[in-house]
Specification:
Number of helices: 4
Largest sheet: 4 strands, antiparallel
Radius of gyration: 16 Å
Oligomer: single chain
Strand content: 15-25%
Strand order of the largest sheet: 2-3-1-4
Shape: globular
Length: about 110
């Protein structure tokens, strides 16, 4: 099942350390099949408050996403971003192609 690393970057900042992070991150993703799906795009807020931007990276599965995040290569560069950008990051598993939200609602009603 596809999984995602999602980051809400509240204070995007082109600090030199952040630029180095950007130059080095793809090499940490490659061994785990990670690829950027959304990266720093201008968000169109329709509900609520959303300061900053969003990053979404896709992985083949949750184990690959965990492996990437916990890898020595990524941990080595992580501080380059977190020292300069306030935000939150999470790993989440996606749903399959046959996912039906009505079935989820029915299960929750039971």
């Amino acid at each position: 099942m596809t999984a995602y690393a999602v980051a809400h970057l509240k204070t995007p900042n082109p600090h030199p350390d952040v630029l180095e992070y950007l130059e080095r991150i793809q090499a940490t993703l490659d061994p785990f099949g990670g690829r950027f799906l959304v990266h720093g795009a201008q968000v169109e807020v329709r509900e609520g408050d959303w300061p900053g931007t969003i990053v979404i990276i896709g992985f083949p599965d949750l184990d690959a996403a965990r492996g990437w995040y916990d890898s020595p290569a990524y941990q080595e560069i992580l501080h380059l971003r977190t020292d300069h950008i306030d935000g939150a990051a999470l790993l989440v598993e996606g749903v399959g192609p046959d996912y039906d939200p009505a079935k989820t609602a029915a299960a929750l009603r039971r």
